[in-house]
Design goal:
alpha/beta; globular; 481 residues; binds 2-acetamido-2-deoxy-beta-D-glucopyranose
Length: 481
């Protein structure tokens, strides 16, 4: 199957040609050099890079010189991360001007080309409150931050860097003083235009195979690590990355500020940017989203109606024990957002209880219930595009045997199976385990859960969990009694 989306060329638009040629030639030269091992592409190798860089940079002018200039830039950047302080913080880079105006700052032009060529990745979003607006047709006042992410270490050992923030942490040029900031809408328009005119060269538009929604503390990190371990070279996995939640929640949890379609359009643009790759080996794209995005799952379904997704959940008491296992329960993830969540207020208004009378344990159960209720509703509406997966100790086999091959339509070969089994073993032994995931040796603790917690779980979270257990869209639906 082809990995590069084939699009019809739109006329003979010549304006991108020099840039496209430059970027594709840079990519081509890099691959060539990689193949002949002049550049140890993934491992560092100062001498090789230096030689490559010099030999490329010393010749040529005119068109050829232009390709070489970009290639040189790319190679040099790998060796000595180049600082950008000019187009960070409050100073937006005017991307279109930088690309079209020959007399504009050459640094800006280079950075803008790096965004087009996907050597800079979208890593964060900011909303500028005084200029922000969004409708179903467009949006403005949203800033996109770019920097070069290095996925190498995550590909080599997923459990050691399971989260997006870990990948950012090992990407030395990614920090708020150095990230390149552009207007998101302008960047998306330019990038889509560029891609439409350059279909058979890098960057590749990765194939979004499947995504994971979850309740939290239910094995979702194992799922993300498995998506990577399945085929590290081919797969790119974003695990709780920063940009998508902005799109999910842009209209408010209850869509009181704009429509689901407006949120979906923004999400499509953000995921489009995140799915462009200048790594010639990458083909497939996976996301694990933050648990609260499940409340706005509708946005995802509108944006990607046929993309398969799963919702992961777990026994109520086990999730609550893990969530509330913190020094101050009022600061637990499932408690601290109680005042800012319209869905929590609405859920409580529908009961006999008063908001101010609820304990932290009860808020936690309501918080989790709003996530599960949205998942249940969307599972039914999606009619098979979504699948519910309940935590078990052998969770990896749900993914190896069913989710990957049958639901996400991602190839599982023998090597992939073994890699997933290996990281699952690593995981259950606690090495590289993500903080907050629950040990399976904690059944004792669960038996000893305070009665007040069990009551809160039964009252608020139990009913929706039973419906999830019995859903016909459950990976392993529980038998009716
Ligand atoms: C990416 O990280 C790996 C180590 O995980 C390192 O060897 C490599 O040089 C880095 N690549 C770049 C372009 O910085």
């Amino acid at each position: 199957m082809t990995t590069i989306r084939r699009k019809r060329r739109q006329g003979n638009d010549a304006k991108w040609k020099p840039i496209a040629l430059a970027i594709s030639t840079a990519g081509f030269l890099s691959i060539l050099l990689y193949i002949v091992r002049l550049i140890p592409w993934r491992s560092s190798g100062g001498v090789g890079v230096g030689v490559g860089s010099r030999s490329v940079s010393n010749s040529g002018s005119g068109r050829l010189g232009q390709y070489q200039q970009v290639a040189t830039t790319k190679i040099r950047q790998q060796q000595h991360p180049r600082k950008n302080t000019k187009y960070a913080v409050d100073n937006l880079l005017p991307m279109r001007r930088a690309l079209e105006d020959d007399n504009f700052d050459p640094l800006a032009t280079e950075l803008a080309r790096n965004i087009l060529g996907a050597s800079l990745n979208l890593v964060d979003i900011h909303i500028i409150s005084h200029s922000f607006s969004i409708t179903e047709d467009s949006y403005s006042g949203i800033v996109a931050e770019f920097c070069p992410l290095n996925f190498t270490a995550q590909k080599e050992n997923p459990p050691s860097l399971p989260m997006f923030k870990d990948v950012v942490g090992v990407s030395p040029q990614c920090n708020k003083h150095n990230n390149v900031r552009v207007d998101l809408k302008e960047a998306v328009d330019l990038v889509r235009e560029f891609d439409a005119d350059n279909t058979d060269v890098l960057p590749t538009i990765l194939d979004l195979k499947g995504v994971v929604f979850h309740e939290s503390r239910c094995g979702s990190t194992l799922a993300a690590n498995s998506m990577m371990a399945l085929h590290p070279e081919k797969n790119r996995v974003y695990s709780e990355s920063s940009p998508p939640p902005y799109a999910f929640k842009i209209c408010g949890e209850d869509y009181s500020d704009c429509s689901p379609q407006a949120s979906a359009n923004l999400l499509k643009d953000i995921i489009y940017l995140m799915g462009r790759s200048n790594d010639p080996k990458e083909q497939n794209l996976f996301f694990k989203f933050q648990s609260v995005t499940t409340r706005n799952l509708e946005s995802f379904r509108l944006a990607f109606p046929t993309t398969p997704w799963v919702f992961m959940y777990r026994n109520p008491i086990e999730v609550m024990m893990s969530q509330l296992d913190v020094p101050h329960t009022s600061k637990a993830n499932c408690v601290r957002s109680k005042h800012s969540s319209p869905l929590i207020k609405k859920a409580i208004a529908g009961t006999q209880y008063k908001f101010d009378d609820l304990s932290d344990e009860e808020f936690c159960a309501v918080h989790l219930a709003t996530i599960c209720e949205s998942a249940l509703r969307n599972l039914e509406d999606a009619d098979g595009v979504g699948m519910a997966i309940k935590y078990t100790d052998d969770l990896e086999y749900a993914f190896i045997d069913t989710v990957f091959p049958k639901h996400f339509h991602a190839l599982v070969d023998e090597d992939g199976r073994q890699r997933v089994e290996k990281i699952a073993g690593t995981y259950s032994k606690g090495r590289g385990m993500h903080e907050g995931e629950f040990h399976s040796d904690s059944e004792e603790k669960i038996r000893n859960a305070p009665k007040s917690m069990k009551d809160a779980a039964d009252e608020f979270l139990g009913p929706v969990n039973k419906l999830l257990d019995k859903s016909s869209y459950n990976f392993r639906p529980e038998e009716e009694e």
